Amino acid sequence: MENGRVDRGGQAVPFAKALGDYLKASGLSESLAHKAIRETWRETVGPEICQHTRVAGLRSNVLIIEVDSAPWLNELAGFYKGTILKEVQRKLPREAIRDIQFRAGSF
Predict the structure, then answer these.
(1) Strand, helix or coil at 105?
(2) Structural domain includes residue 17
(3) Which CA distances in Å does 83 have to 9, 19, 70, 78, 89?
(4) pLDDT score recorded for residue 106
(5) Which residues fall within 8 angstroms of residue 32, CB to CB, at 6 or more apart?
(6) How far apart are CA 100 and CA 81, in angstroms?
(7) From the CB of residue 39, how many other CB atoms can be counted at a distance below 10 Å?
(8) What is the count of structural domains for the chain?
C-alpha cells in the first residue's frame, strides 16, 4: 500500500499511525523524547546549573533531576523549582510534566 500498511485484519492503516506504532514498539519514541527533555533542560537552566545536574528520567509525568551536591539541590528545589517547571512545561507540552523532583546523585 502506498500511504500506509495493511493490518492483520486486512484493513489499511495510515502511514503516520504505522510509523508511530513502530517507534513505540522499538523504543525509539522514548529515546527521542528523552533526548528532547535533556536538550530542553540544558536550554532552560543554562550551562552553570547543567554542570551540576543530570536528567535521570521521567516517571508518571514527574521529571527526575539528579543533582551533584546538597547546596545545589537545596537551591534548585527551594528557589528555582517553580520557575524551571513552568518553563519546561511551556517548552514540552506533549510530555505533560506536572512536577520536578530533585534528588542527590553522583555522575
Answers:
(1) coil
(2) no
(3) 49, 35, 20, 11, 10
(4) 80
(5) 23
(6) 7
(7) 13
(8) 1
Does a structural domain hold residue 12? no
Show the domain range for 100. 29-104
Whole-number Å distance between alpha carbons of 96 and 90 = 10
The helix/strand/coil state of 64 is: strand
The reply to whether 6 falls in a domain is no
Residue with cell 503516520: 16
Q: What are phi and psi of 56, to 5 degrees?
A: -95, -20
> Is the pTM higher than 0.85?
no
Which residue, chain included where needed, has cell 551533584? 68
pLDDT band at 2 (very low <50, low <70, confident <90, very high): very low
Contact 100, 62 (CB under 8 A): yes
